[in-house]
UniProtKB/TrEMBL annotation:
Pfam families linked to this entry: Glyco_hydro_16
Signal peptide: 1-30
The organism's place on the tree of life at top rank: Eukaryota
Protein name: GH16 domain-containing protein
Signal in keyword set: yes
Active-site residue list: 114, 118
Key words, A-Z: Glycosidase, Hydrolase, Signal
A GO BP entry: xyloglucan metabolic process
MF terms (GO), sorted A to Z: hydrolase activity, hydrolyzing O-glycosyl compounds; xyloglucan:xyloglucosyl transferase activity
InterPro entries: Beta-glucanase-like, Beta-glucanase/XTH, Beta_glucanase, ConA-like_dom_sf, GH16_AS, XTH
Length: 295
């Protein structure tokens, strides 16, 4: 017997009133950049919405059985620091994936660059996994996964990507968890030339996301909401006299100054769950990628 469609209250709703309230409240937060002005909805726009939470304009992305949703920054950037506050799907989030990533406009796959954070949901009471990957020139397979040290559904936390010519850093509440180096010695590709936009999405990935795909999305719990706010974009600043970050001389230590090696070491020890650099099976050719065996 065919199962009947879920009642419509389980679908995302278009909350126009909240959007109107958010617009009306703009004057009171004139100093601060509104997320509403910084991003555009790119996907499932009919069921994501902005609302004011105190003086924070907040974007709720919604996932239901019909669709997920997503946004992209209106501006694109070549190097910079991106900080945003996110609160993830609460309770039974199994099968859902909430993302934050940098990616260029449509380019052929051989030019595909991406700096990717994916928050893999879980059944109530079990922890999220933060899955990260870096693509350069169409090649990814640089996955590292982390266990967060707090419940990311209880409150907003700050997730950051620092991207400069020498490093890609991922930080959680200011704590660096991942550092991917542009090291000429390894000849690994690194995103160095394309402007990228910041994206956020929520989608259904219950074929693989939770406990290896064994736990499926429970649509009776839908709609699922993930919240974003307080986007801060800080363009990369080169050394005095250098026209832009990409022209920084090779011997410059500009991009090493803020690196906290000790904090990175601690994160690896305490929060790292999976590391492609330790995965001989996945690397296929029986040798670890070159960047894994440097330092
Ligand atoms: C989901 O959203 C995309 C983009 O907005 C749209 O093209 C697609 O038709 C939607 N899918 C469903 C099932 O509504
Ligand atoms: C999560 O579960 C708690 C307790 O049942 C409930 O109060 C809360 O509204 C739920 N949150 C969401 C986002 O469904
Ligand atoms: C979900 O919870 C299980 C059990 O604690 C854990 O093994 C798994 O890593 C968690 N995360 C995901 C995405 O499956």
């Amino acid at each position: 017997m065919a199962s009947s469609p879920p009642p419509s209250r389980m679908r995302c709703v278009l909350v126009m009133a909240l959007l109107v309230m958010a617009m009306a409240a703009r004057t009171s937060t004139a100093e601060k950049k509104l997320l509403f002005d910084q991003v555009q909805l790119t996907w499932g726009e009919y069921h994501s919405f902005f609302y004011m939470d105190g003086d924070e304009d907040t974007l709720a992305l919604c996932l239901d059985e019909t669709n997920g949703s997503g946004f992209a920054s209106k501006d694109s950037y070549l190097y910079g620091r991106f900080d945003i506050d996110m609160k993830l799907v609460a309770n039974n989030s199994a099968g859902t994936v909430t993302t934050l990533y940098l990616m260029p406009e449509d380019v052929p796959w051989e030019y595909h660059d991406e700096i990717d954070l994916e928050f893999l949901g879980n059944v109530t009471g079990e922890p999220y996994t933060l899955h990260t990957n870096i693509f350069a020139n169409g090649v990814g397979r640089r996955e590292q996964q982390f266990r967060l040290w707090f419940d990311p559904t209880e409150d907003f936390h700050t997730y950051s990507i620092v991207w400069n010519p020498k490093h890609i850093l991922i930080l959680v509440d200011g704590v660096p968890i991942r550092d991917y180096k542009n090291d000429p010695a390894t000849k690994m590709p690194f995103p160095t030339w394309q402007h990228m936009r910041l994206h956020g999405t929520i989608w259904n990935a219950d074929d693989w996301a939770t406990q290896g795909g064994r736990v499926k999305t429970d649509w009776t719990q839908s709609p699922f909401f993930a919240y974003y706010r307080n986007l801060r974009v800080t363009p990369c600043v080169p050394s005095p006299g250098v026209p832009w970050c990409g022209a920084e001389p090779a011997e410059s230590t500009r991009f090493e100054e803020d690196l906290d090696h000790e904090a990175l070491r601690r994160s690896k020890e305490q929060h790292l769950l999976y590391d492609y650099c330790r995965d001989l099976i996945k690397s296929g050719d029986k040798v670890l990628p070159m960047e894994c065996t440097q330092d």
